[in-house]
Protein: HTH domain-containing protein
Organism: Streptomyces taklimakanensis
Amino acid sequence: MAGSEAREAVDTAQAALDHDPRVGLRAVAALRRLVERLETLQVDNARGQGWSWEEIGTALGVSRQAVHKKHSRR
């Protein structure tokens, strides 16, 4: 993640705490999208380094089957 992307992520996380629900909810949605992108990036990284689906699932706190189902089709 580049410096500007990291700054944007921090700003978005701060916006999620805003007292205006419109601002906060938009920020929550943006953070969900970011988490999905980061998970995909790191799953690909782990698979590229030879990690098993079991190891990845354990690191993510989910089952091997869940992570395989979500990421194996790409």
Observations:
- Residues 3-71 form one domain.
- The chain has one domain: 3-71.
